[in-house]
Amino acid sequence: MFFDAEWEHAFLRIRFGGHYRWLDSGGPDGQRLAFCAPAMRLSLVAGPLRLLDGDFPDRDAMTGIAEHNLRQAPALLAADDR
Is residue 49 scored above 60 in pLDDT? Predict the structure, then answer.
């Protein structure tokens, strides 16, 4: 699959947190990035939940990933309401 730069930068922000500043080229479109960030969080909830439907061996880790991203998603949506 191919994704756009904003989708990739949304992941990089999540993955590297405060260290993202070293990767930020200033190129991604701000409005598209604002759309991709909550979508990425929701994707990081849905993916682990799909794995939990099966017999995934490390259920606690996947549950933790889903719960963490579920807690983060509303904050991103509230930030866009300004």
Answer: yes
CA distances from 16 to 12, 20, 78 (A): 6, 5, 22
In angstroms, the CA 44 to CA 16 distance is: 15
pTM comes to: 0.76
CB burial class (10 A; 0-12, 13-18, 19+) of residue 41? buried
When pLDDT is cut at 50, 70 and 90, the band that residue 82 belongs to is very low
| Domain spans of the chain, in order of start | 5-12+30-79
Burial class, 53, CB count within 10 angstroms (exposed 0-12 / middle 13-18 / buried 19+): exposed
Q: What is the C-alpha to C-alpha distance for residues 73 and 82, in angstroms, rounded to an integer?
A: 16
